TrEMBL record:
Principal cellular location given in the protein's record: cytoplasm
Family: Belongs to the RNR ribonuclease family.
Family annotation (Pfam families): OB_Dis3 (PF17849), PIN_4 (PF13638), RNB (PF00773), Rrp44_CSD1 (PF17216)
Domain RNB, chain residue ranges per copy: 465-803
Protein name: Protein DIS3 homolog
Basic and acidic residues: bias regions: 943-961
């Protein structure tokens, strides 16, 4: 039989239309219970046990559970435990969950798919005895609650009539809606709250810890600490009227009493200060902000401030004294004054599960404890657990549930333990989870998309391509690289240009990943989700499976590979005469490291084909580089380090700044040129959906502190254009301080905005501009093994030269914008994860190790100077006592008698590790020179400490002679 479903929808023009659809109902849908003797089940269709064992003392008899939508949405962590089984998930609930939270929906589907869990999905919306119409004037939520109750009654009746066992399983409805429970009881349905059910479960220790503390956040309380949030209707009205603004909250890493709101239309982020100004916003939340009148605007607090409470301080706020002490009154014309406001409402929470450690209560037997997140921008969380003795020594995962007005901290619940604090696997897991890096093993569906391990290039595929196997092509990469994306070749061409210049052919050959990663396959969807390969110290999280990344797609020396080639004809001045693109087959003559390539170029006794190609490439690259810089491209810098890893323990044994050779620049120049050439082609062929990369010019406000610091060193830098800025940086040199110019470029990098992927149809042509590279258009084409952006670009380029068919989603601007959003997010998170890995390994390296090194001042704060160790590329705060130092807020300098500390100054510091806080172990920087009595570390004390450390290291080596000799044999 069938009925009709009627609903209203809004068109793009804002018109409301009625849609009527046929809705088919059946009477042969299976109940899934092994207790039923009527439904025509096959053996593999029984999901629910015939005699389910009860684990809840409230209901001693066999029973099945039916859950309402809110139980699934709020208690998914409980459901993922093995405790609950024989659960019926109704279609009504499944569809509501899908509509409200896709992440939880996917987690629920995984539970249902696990046959051991015995979760049965019943299609109640298509069963003639369980489907109900929505009554006139009835809210959708009330209709769905009624549908759930109807299904519960049907199951109870169905099983009582058709059961093959003596005592048929009864139905228990779990719902936290008090009104729904009341109506259910009136209808004869057995029901209870999820809390009552779980509290009476036996045999599953820790299950109660996973209950969500879903307290109404705006519940009135005479003890309220925070202002009430506005309702959604009030927020909507305020934004529409221009009194409020929507933004994204970003918490400060350095000051827990400060944050900003990034709002479209404002050059500067909106400053939010104090508990009441932040008003329970958590980093990443979408918030409604009220901006204060201009006379109430302030400058950010120039202080490093951490929430250092050793124990739960209770529900009290103490920030006013801190704010008054560290915030200077507004003065007219102060160019550091920032638009200031306060959070008045939460539009959408962006809460996730957070990694960290448990701070146990000092009260014996207490169940309420504080959780300290690994991410400093996340506030501490109150959780309840009866496992504190066990969890105190472990990294744990906690989910946020709510943040009531009368609680200093948000409330949450324990999810799972990750491993012992300090265990490297556990610490790596923390990094990956904290930065939302997908790192699960590739699914069977993904692996099924791969070719066999012994795959070779078919002859018919070679015939479709340009055969370049005879060309002298080679790759140049960092040492240990196995996912080789790119290779190059260059050779002289006969004849000259009309101007009498020599002619060369130069080719960039990129792994043809799209031959294996076809659109809309499981492999493609996984790569799109991951978006990028993530590089940790000693570990790589691949975007595509290893068979492709390190084998079939990797352009290894001496092996035939499929490639996508960009080939230019150029003159000896590196002017492009002609460009062509084609799919190709190559056989790399050599896979070299940067250092090996540099040695080959410099070796005058070598004149073979590989070296000849490299020398042509190197000479042309220098001319390309000069052209870019003359055009205004910025040559910036960032502190990069490389660890030497012990082959057995996989722990770092040494660290050093990365060396940059001419061959690094050689490869970079041709990758940039290929990316620009491809971008030009795509924009011409696909003006609405080309995937491009832009770098917006930084707003002038970004340079303010940087320019003031440079001026203190005697340099007036011109930042009016990128060309003027580049020229200024080139001329800012201090004789005798070779690192000064590098430091200046590191500081300049931090003034920049993030580069972004975008779809060409979403921006004007003027907005395509890449500020850092000083080029009007740019994309990413050269690394498809490790970047999904390049995969999309390859597909577009292939379609433009008729090498492959296009497909609908490739030309869909809405899809393109969504892909770009994910690319930007994953790229940013991968960078953060890489930095966190460096920090973790630095802590391992400096455990029980002390170094005395030169340092440069990066920034001057009210209570610290931020320093960088050039030798290691490490940085951090050197705290200064207020009783010895005086801070000049206008000039950003610290003075102690005749000693003045300002940005770019050189210091000598002692570097050691502070492990007193297990959650946030940190490098400690202590001043050695200039010497300040009573503050600087005494040089004799430094030498004694180093001697003791060296003795300990020597002793440890002597205690493990076998290990050391084994290691040397491996080398």
């Amino acid at each position: 039989m069938w009925t009709t479903k009627t609903f209203l929808t809004k068109t793009k023009r804002g018109n409301i239309i009625k849609i009527v659809r046929e809705h088919y109902l059946r009477d042969d849908l299976l109940c899934g219970s092994a207790a039923c003797n009527t439904c025509p089940h096959k053996d593999d269709e029984f999901v629910l046990d015939g005699k389910p064992k009860s684990i809840c003392t409230l209901f001693s008899y066999p029973h099945y559970l039916i859950l309402d939508t809110n139980v699934v949405l709020h208690q998914i962590d409980v459901l993922e435990e093995d405790a609950l089984s024989n659960v019926i998930i109704l279609q009504t609930v499944l569809e509501e969950v899908k509509h409200q939270n896709t992440a939880i929906y996917q987690r629920l589907l995984e539970i249902i798919a696990n046959k051991k869990r015995k979760f049965y999905s019943f299609v109640n919306e298509h069963h003639k005895d369980t489907y109900i119409e929505r009554n006139p004037g009835e809210k959708q939520n009330d209709r769905n609650d009624r549908a759930i109750r109807k299904a519960a009654v049907w199951y109870e009746t169905h099983l009582s009539i058709n059961s093959v066992v003596g005592q048929f399983p009864k139905i228990v409805l779990l719902t936290d809606d008090e009104n729904n429970r009341k109506i259910a009881q009136e209808e004869g349905i057995v029901c209870c709250s999820i809390k009552d059910y779980v509290e009476n479960v036996t045999g599953f220790i820790g299950l109660l810890d996973k209950l969500s503390k879903n307290v109404a956040p705006e519940a009135c309380s005479k003890d309220a600490l925070y202002p009430a949030h506005l309702t959604p209707a009030q927020i909507h009205e305020g934004i529409r009227g221009g009194k409020l603004h929507q933004g994204t909250f970003r918490a400060s890493r350095d000051n827990f009493l400060e944050g900003t709101a990034v709002i479209n239309g404002f050059e500067k982020p909106i400053l939010l200060q104090g508990h009441s100004g932040i008003n329970r916003a958590v980093d990443g939340d979408s918030i409604a902000v009220e901006i204060f009148p201009e006379e109430e605007w302030r400058r950010p607090m120039d202080i490093v401030l951490e929430d250092k409470a050793d124990d739960d301080p209770g529900d009290q706020l103490e920030e006013e004294a801190v704010l008054l002490k560290n915030t200077k009154p507004v003065e007219k014309g102060d160019d550091e004054i920032t638009p200031t406001g306060r959070v008045v409402g939460i539009i959408r929470r962006k809460w996730r599960q957070y990694c960290g450690i448990l701070m146990r209560s000092k009260f014996p037997g207490a169940t309420r404890h504080l959780f300290v997140p690994a991410e400093k921008r996340i506030p501490r969380v109150r959780i309840e657990t009866r496992q504190s003795d066990v969890l105190a020594s472990q990294r744990i995962l906690v989910a946020l549930d709510s943040w009531p007005r009368n609680s200093r901290y948000p409330l949450g619940h324990f999810v799972r333990a990750l491993g012992q604090i300090g265990d490297k696997n556990a610490e790596n897991e923390v990094i990956l989870l904290e930065h939302d890096v997908p790192h699960a093993r590739f699914s069977e569906a993904v692996l099924a998309c791969l070719p066999p391990n012994d795959w070779t290039i078919p002859e018919e595929e070679i015939k479709k391509r340009v055969d370049l196997r005879s060309e002298c092509i080679c790759s140049v990469d960092p040492p240990g690289c196995t996912d080789i994306d790119d290779a190059l070749h260059a050779k002289a061409l006969p004849g000259h240009t009309d101007d009498g210049l020599k002619r060369y052919e130069v080719g960039v050959h990129i792994a043809d990943v799209t031959h294996f990663v076809r659109p809309n396959t499981a492999l493609d969807k996984e790569a799109a989700n991951r978006s990028t390969t993530v590089y940790l110290v000693g570990r790589r999280i691949d975007m595509v499976p290893d068979l492709l990344s390190s084998n079939l797609c990797s352009l290894r020396g001496g092996e035939e590979r499929l490639a996508f080639s960009c080939v230019w004809e150029v003159d000896e001045n590196a002017n492009i005469l002609h460009t062509k693109f084609h799919k190709s087959v190559i056989k790399s003559a050599a896979a070299m490291t940067y250092e090996e390539a540099q040695i080959a170029i410099d070796d005058k006794s070598r004149n073979d084909a590989i070296v000849s190609s490299l020398r042509i490439l190197n000479a042309l690259a220098k001319k390309l580089n000069r052209k870019r810089l003359d055009n205004g491209a910025l040559s910036l810098s960032s502190p990069e380090i490389r660890f030497q890893i012990d082959s057995e323990t996989h722990d770092p044994v040494e660290v050093q700044a990365k060396k940059i050779l001419d061959t690094n620049s050689m490869v970079e120049e041709f990758m940039l040129l290929a990316n620009i050439s491809v971008a030009q082609r795509l924009a011409a062929e696909f003006p609405q959906c080309a995937l491009l990369r832009r770098h917006p010019a930084p707003p002038p406000a970004n340079f303010h502190t940087f320019l003031k610091a440079a001026k203190q060193q005697g340099f007036d830098l011109d930042v009016s254009t990128n060309k003027a800025f580049s020229k200024s940086l080139d001329s800012a040199v201090i004789p005798g301080r070779p690192f000064f110019n590098t430091l200046l470029r590191i500081m300049a990098t931090r003034c920049m905005q993030q580069a972004q992927y975008f779809s060409s149809g979403s921006k004007t042509v003027e907005e395509y501009y890449h500020y850092g590279l000083a080029c009007p258009i740019y994309t990413h084409f050269t690394s498809p093994i490790r970047r999904y952006a390049d995969v999309i670009v390859h597909r577009l380029l292939a379609a433009s030269i008729d090498c492959d068919v296009t497909h609908a989603t490739l030309l869909d601007t809405k899809v393109a914008n969504s892909v770009c959003d994910n690319l930007n997010y994953r790229h940013r998170q991968a960078q953060y994860a890489g930095r966190a890995s460096v920090t973790m390994n630095t802590h391992i390296l400096f455990n029980k190790r002390v170094e005395i090194e030169l340092a440069s001042v990066l920034a001057v704060k009210r209570n610290a100077v931020h320093v960088l160790i050039p030798k290691y590329g490490l940085e951090g705060p050197l705290y200064l006592p207020s009783d010895k130092f005086t801070y000049n807020e206008e000039e950003h300098i610290q003075t102690c008698g005749d000693i003045v500390l300002k940005t770019f100054d050189e210091l000598t510091v002692r570097l050691s590790l502070d492990s007193s806080n297990l959650q946030h172990r940190k490098l400690v920087f202590e001043l050695v020179k200039p010497h300040i009595p009573g503050f600087s570390v005494d040089i004799m004390e430094v030498e004694d400490t180093k001697t003791e450390t060296e003795k300990e290291q020597k002793k440890r080596k002597e205690e493990t002679p076998a290990k050391s000799s084994k290691k040397s044999k491996k080398k």
